[in-house]
């Protein structure tokens, strides 16, 4: 047995060694290769390669030859002479666009064809990003000859010029004169969906996050101007876009028709961006937006081919239909998200935040949940406060899940819905929309309980949602408990 174990270990070590050698990086193996290019810098090596002489001339013309003669390590993706013949002469003849064009073929550090990652997202000297996929794909070009070493890096010969592409937000801006959807998105540079958006725009300072604060869509959905990450975006043609917005108007009623149209547009479009780049073949069967809205993409509505951007993929769509029962998702408020009680601040220490297990549930979370409870009170109508954004102009059915597993008696609690109408000298003036009747909280009931309904004639935030204890001072009769509140919008 000992001999067998020893033999097995030797075989395993040998296999690991073979695997390590076979997967080693050509860049790491350059030493001792006697490659004469190791005595030249990248600029010299590219100039000496017959297939890349045209690109070599552009290195000189743009000044990047000097950069590639420096001691830092670079990777260059050099197009073939044939590929360079297809480049627009206007790009080459303009010093600024030429410099950006050349820079988009160069990245800092050495990236050989054999690497640890299947996909490396490379920041080019143009500040754009390209995906280096597998051993032979960079962006939308193929490597035809790889791993040419020089003293200060590597260059790969590619079959296509890698001119810098627009990112998704740049593309949207370029279409604002001809696309209603683009025009609306760009208008959010000036119009703020939320008050905090306006504050962010006023206080934003130059820096890496400044662009995400300059527009309500970039701030609240995804920063489509961010080059580092990748996204998918669905841009609808005018007819399809206007039809979807019209459907949403009755649920986003505001004080003026213009405001209604603005908010209907925003709540239509906030679901059109995804935080990952999907090719047509990779598009999921069901899309789930950042806001929990689910819908399907009808591929027959895609116009032409997907547009490859520097930070993802953009689809021109005839329309993207989202069913109302999927668009109008319920609003969930977690009990443990409560604000401290304002009516009895001296009793805030009575508020307990609990980690519990629901014995009626199993996978996926095995019944674990968080909630809040207040007990052993000697004051009446102790109150927990909540708030939530983005309620639609429709009727809401209200439910709660409230777990009474600590009191031997059944206690009662009630819900009140209100909004802040104005703030004067740090005092909130409130309009009460609905006060529900007291509802008994039965022992060990882990099911949702229907509380009632209320109607909003105007889409708004609700800044004053109160859970109120019983009007009693007797311990055990005025407790509070809440796992969550659920506000379910009714389709008109």
TrEMBL record:
Gene3D superfamilies associated with the record: FAS1 domain
One of the Pfam families matching this protein, by short name: Fasciclin
Protein name per Swiss-Prot or TrEMBL: Fasciclin domain-containing protein
Residue ranges occupied by any FAS1 domain in the UniProt entry: 39-162
Organism in which the protein naturally occurs: Flavobacterium agrisoli
InterPro entries named among the record's database cross-references: Adhesion/Biosynth-related (IPR050904), FAS1_dom_sf (IPR036378), FAS1_domain (IPR000782)
SUPFAM superfamilies: FAS1 domain
Record-linked SMART domains: FAS1
Highest taxon, organism lineage: Bacteria
